[in-house]
Specification:
With about 120 residues, the chain is of the alpha+beta class. It has helices at about 15-20, 20-45, 60-70, 85-90, and strands at about 10, 15, 50, 80, 100-105, 110-115.
């Protein structure tokens, strides 16, 4: 089954046609997290959760809420990609997460960044 084979709705209207880009992105993230839970239940262990460029169309409040959800330890190892490093640094500030940044560029080799940050508890 492909995701395009399913009809997702908001208040009875097709999400693809009537949902904002932020609503569509938020729905896809929720679907991805549900898939994570299903895979965990079936496999008996947590898979790697990969979230590719998920913050592009969602507002900072939703982004922060998702990152807080991920910081609860429920998801294990999470790999997030983003084209805006500053946005991601700002969103992760103060969360109790073990974070590593890897900067990828066509001109340079992979650069790993480790940094000290204040964690709100």
């Amino acid at each position: 089954m492909h995701k395009d084979d399913l009809l997702f709705t908001i208040e009875g209207r097709p999400l693809k046609r009537f949902g904002s880009q932020g609503q569509q992105k938020t729905f896809l993230i929720a679907l991805k997290l549900a898939q994570f839970d299903l895979t965990t239940a079936r496999a008996g262990r947590k898979p790697l959760l990969m979230l590719d460029d998920i913050f592009d169309k969602i507002d900072p409040q939703r982004m922060r809420h998702l990152l807080k959800l991920l910081s609860g330890g429920r998801f294990g190892q999470v790999l997030i990609t983003d084209t805006d490093a500053t946005r991601l640094h700002r969103a992760l500030d103060g969360l109790d997460l073990d974070i590593r940044f890897f900067h990828l560029s066509h001109e340079k080799p992979i650069h790993a960044e480790t940094f000290e940050r204040t964690v709100a508890r």
